[in-house]
Amino acid sequence: MRVEPAVALVGHIVVPGDKSISHRAVLIGALGEGEVRVHGFGRAGDTQSTVDGVRALGVEVEDVADDELVVHGVGLRGLHAGSVDCGNSGTLMRLLAGAVAGQNGEFALTGDESLSARPMERIAAPLRQMGATVETTDGHAPLVIRGSGALRGVEFEPEAASAQVKSAILLAGLNAGGPTTVVERIPTRDHTELMLEAAGARIRRSTSSVTLEPAAALRLDAVVVPGDFSSAAPLLVAAALVPGSDLTFHDLGVNPRRTGLLAVLERMGARVSVFDRRRVGGEPVASVQVQPGELVATEIGAAEVPALVDELPLVALLASHARGETRVSGARELRVKETDRIEAVTDGLRPLGARIHSLDDGWTVTGVPARLRGGRIDARGDHRIAMLGAVAGLASREGVAIEGADTAAISFPGFYELLESVTRR
Ligand code: S3P
Questions:
Q1: pLDDT tens, 185-214?
Q2: How many domains does the structure of the chain reveal?
Q3: Are residues 188 and 231 in the same domain?
Q4: Exposed, middle or buried by CB within 10 Å (0-12, 13-18, 19+), for 382?
Q5: Helix segments in 257-374, DSSP class H
Q6: Catalytic residue among 18, 85, 310, 378
Q7: 203 and 231: one domain?
Q8: CA 91, 92, 98 angle in degrees (round to 5)?
Q9: Kindly report the CA angle at 398 between 393 and 399, in degrees rounded to 5?
Q10: What helix, strand, coil percent values describe the chain, rounded to 5?
Q11: In sequence order, which residues have a C-beta less than 8 Å from that of residue 381 and are 6 or more positions away?
Q12: CA 309, CA 324: separation in Å to the nearest integer?
């Protein structure tokens, strides 16, 4: 696929439902009592793996529409033993591992080549401490989990700032004999906590920890999933980069633990306005308008990383168009995403004309306020890198050819069509 340069991105758009919240609606719905109707479900490769995954464990899920489904909960200990193919989804593998740790029976979790290369000891260790038997394959998938009906509550501080690890422990904690605490020095996305609270779980939160009391039962009303901020991000960044753009997103999830990119865009000089703020089912939602500005370099460190972890490849592209040297550090986690995103971004943007260097935990980027030349980028099977290539193409002089562009459908089927619909050439 080739993406040609754009003159502007203009319009009003709604992006598909949030992937993180969609996964959680299906998983928490499966552990609940009765039916949960999920509106605005973000159907994509990853979330379909979650639907198929809970079906494989005996949960009935009705597909009402592409973006609507009904999950028939089986209760906190009602999942059947079985095998689940988690596909490309780290969120599914890690959260499901937590959900099955307190169930009876043996569960096998497998994934594709990329997922099988990602670290799983980070969830295996706390789940073992809670009393489950977790076998990994040299620290990776395939995983075999023998659940325990007698899990213990623990206090655990994950080494990496990871919402997936936190969520795995909390979901296991639902079936533990006492309270479970996750300590996090840098806060990560809190969709699990918000949805468990909405389902009636007792949760205490401080700035640096979350404590969950074991639950007797979960009852979730209908879930309305807001637009996925991470799916909006490539379009937000394209609008900030291409002069003359004016793009507005409606019904967009703006949970502050996800929207670090907005703060970065503003301090780099783009014009951002957030309006019509409200809450939908516990999650903050708003409209967001973005217009370009003269971009300047910035600095991003560990404290800011979780709030924009999936958007950092896009920040590297912004930085190549921003006057001065941008430094991103404290982001070593990028090395264990769907691919090593530190190297994928450096190897991807440099041939397009960017002056970018990898650090162990980020990049330095020297930017100038001018278009990159363009060229070819390899998505390396990573949806976020494919979408990065598309934005780079719009903002380039000669366009960008994306190898493996189809992988965008892992999180955002219809991405290229939506992008074209707002692009003027
Ligand atoms: C996610 C958490 C993040 C993020 C991923 C989705 C989630 O991973 O990168 O795309 O839904 O909890 P980590 O929490 O492992 O950093």
A1: 999 999 999 999 999 999 999 989 999 999
A2: 2
A3: no
A4: buried
A5: 260-268, 312-320, 341-349
A6: 310
A7: no
A8: 95
A9: 25
A10: 35, 30, 35
A11: 113, 114, 338, 339, 404, 407
A12: 22
Tokens representing 420?
């074209």
Atom 5 of ligand 1, nearest CA residue = 91
Query: Which helix or strand (DSSP H or E) is residue 134 part of?
Result: strand 133-137
- Determine the length of the chain: 425
Q: Are residues 208 and 69 in the same domain?
A: yes
Tens of pLDDT, residue by residue over 257-287, are 999 999 999 999 999 999 999 999 899 999 9
Task: Choose which residue among 114, 192, 309, 333 to substitute to test ligand 1 binding: the one with the highest number of ligand atoms within 8 A of its C-beta.
Answer: 309
Question: Taking the complete model, does pTM exceed 0.85, yes or no?
Answer: yes
Q: What is the DSSP letter of 200?
A: T
Task: Quote the domain boundaries for residue 256.
Answer: 2-16+226-424
The residue whose CA is least distant from atom 13 of ligand 1 is: 162
For residue 384, the domain's CATH number is: 3.65.10.10
In this predicted structure, the answer to whether residue 115 has a pLDDT above a threshold of 90 is: yes
Three-state helix/strand/coil letters over 57-119? CCCEEEEEECCEEEEECCCCCCCCCEEEECCCCHHHHHHHHHHHCCCCCEEEEECCCCHHHCC
Residue type, 367: G
